[in-house]
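Minutes, structural biology subgroup

Action item carried over from last meeting: produce the structure token record for DctP family TRAP transporter solute-binding subunit (Halomonas icarae). EB confirmed the sequence was re-checked against the source entry. Recorded below for completeness.
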Amino acid sequence: MNGFIRSTLALSVSLAMAAGAQADEFADMDPMTLRLAHVVNEQDGFHLAAMKFEELVEERTGGKLDIELYPNATLGDERTLLEGMQIGTVDMGVITNGPVANFLEEMAVFELPFLFPSPEAAYEVLDGEIGQELLDRLSEVNLKGLAYAERGFRNLTNSERAVESPEDIDGLRIRVMENPVYVDTFRELGANAVPMAWTEALTAMQQGTIDGQENPVNVIHSFKLHETQDHMTLSRHTYAPALFVMGMPAWNKLPEAAQSVIEQAAQEAAEHERRVNAEMEAEQLAALREAGMQIVEEPDIAAFQQAVTPVYEQYGEQFGDYLPRIQEALK
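Output recorded by EB:
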């Protein structure tokens, strides 16, 4: 038996023993069920993260904690889910950062334009002191922040021309989310920013009443946007985290050992989703290229950053000292 196989087997055995030992701690615990909800379909990264979490928790508690998954907004939209967690009618969820920021405003600091240069830089801040501090502060609004999964970096598509610098955006009609930071970001870049619901945007692109939109690669791929959008720029202009989050009513019912398992499993499931997203993105970009989409891989990011300086001047102060601390951490 070669050394690699031997060490892999040894690692598998030690992990299985650790899980078994952990499960023994729960022998006397009364069985409990936690309902974990999200708003996307079973192919989405959120669901893959939720499935990984379910597997880890059930294994490590010897099945005493049963995780029930509710995808496809079956228990409500993201705001409804968070409100349900606060009062105890929903136990937990995987929720996009934007709606969480409606409950704790400082969470929106992560979505300032061109803040993070890479996924790794984002993970370092989110998994480090600043990100963990904000997770802890969710207790102020009766929520328990567990870990950061991700929606990912957002990129620009349009039907008119290749975009390599802010000048190329000038005058394009770009659909953005109904969020003032996104609207102002694209106005500063010279676009005619059009805030609208996603369902309306799909029709507007088909009819040509807007020229483009911005979303992560997985959305661009799954909605077949290459059919109306000839050009994509890997602008990575905004990084959107997502959170494993629980209601304090559900969290407080759990014994300490179960809380520890849940925190660890959430972090591992979040990291699993990040890896899967990276693999899927490479495949999705290849498929979009094959379908005829022209992709600008290296736009002039420095010029884009310069153009959105007024957005930082306008919004930076509402996040207290979090923005300067993040900027310092990224140096």
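Discussion: The mean pLDDT is 92.
Next step: EB to file the record with the rest of the batch.
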